[in-house]
Design brief:
356 residues, binds zinc ion
Length: 356
Amino acid sequence: MNGGIALARLTERVRGRDAHVELVDMRDEAAEGNRQPLSRRLVEVVSRTLEREEQTIIYLNRRGMATFVMCRDCGRSVQCLGCSVALVQHAEIEGLVCHYCGYSRAMPSVCDFCGSRNIRGLGVGTQRLEGMVKKLWPSARVLRLDSDVARGPDSYFNVWETFSEQRADILVGTQLVTRGLDLPAVTCVGVVDADLPLHFPDYRSAESTFSLVAQVAGRAGRDGRSSRVVVQTSNPEHYALQCAAEGDYQGFYEAERPARKAFVFPPFADLAVLTRTDRDDTKAASSAREAAEAIATGLLREGIEGIRVMGPSPAFIHKLRGEYRWQVTLKGDGLERARHLAPRGKDWSFDVDPVT
Ligand SMILES: [Zn+2]
Ligand SMILES: [Zn+2]
């Protein structure tokens, strides 16, 4: 490989032993009539963990009460005014919040688009999940950790302290719960929806899924007690999940490599994204198109080879904080060579290998 990346293999953990990771197919749950976000298997494993007076972490990368509020009649969700994303329901404000710009509004009683009263929250966020967990195990001490809880200056540490001193049995939370603390009494980890990153339109989505599961699994079994990780998914055959369940880094690399190579993604090429932002959508699009043409022409004129110019296309979050975003993608080697051809200014950004 031209980048000189070496594989550092960790064949044994410093301490403890690997947790047993199981994949639960949520399509079977639905087919057998379980419409709850927790599978029967996860419920069983959590119950057993509670009986043994050990601790559980339940991971869900979605804050709030529900993913979004949808109209059953026209199928549209309640959107942010400034961003092209759905608003998320939150109990503490009794309303809906945009996770990108913070815009909030009261829960509407009728659909903005068709006026139907048949609107309801769909999906589950950490807040609602916490409520469900408390109902399922009424005698368990349940804590929640997500950025809404952690916003106060001490609450992040308070939650961790309470949990690590074993003054709580179950911790429900977002990726904040996957970060590095050593919690020997955690012998059960549940991943409520491992598919979320797989749906992300990003070439790294398989890698994100793999590392999420590998990282979450690393929370369990840290002092050698037998422990279980239950990963809920609707894609149990996906190599990212299969390899993560086996802790097989090498296997994941080998499965991921051909796709990256075929589509010329890192590590086979660098990626850069030029983003044009404007309050006027048409202006953003046409200006991004002009930039793409100017870059392509410039590369040709200067005899710079090995860089492809693609787009423009709308950004994943097309509208953000009231501004529209259009992107031109560059792929190839030595993308810095093209930087001087890209427009500059406050409406433009040029990121090499950007994180979406
Ligand atoms: Zn409607
Ligand atoms: Zn917003």
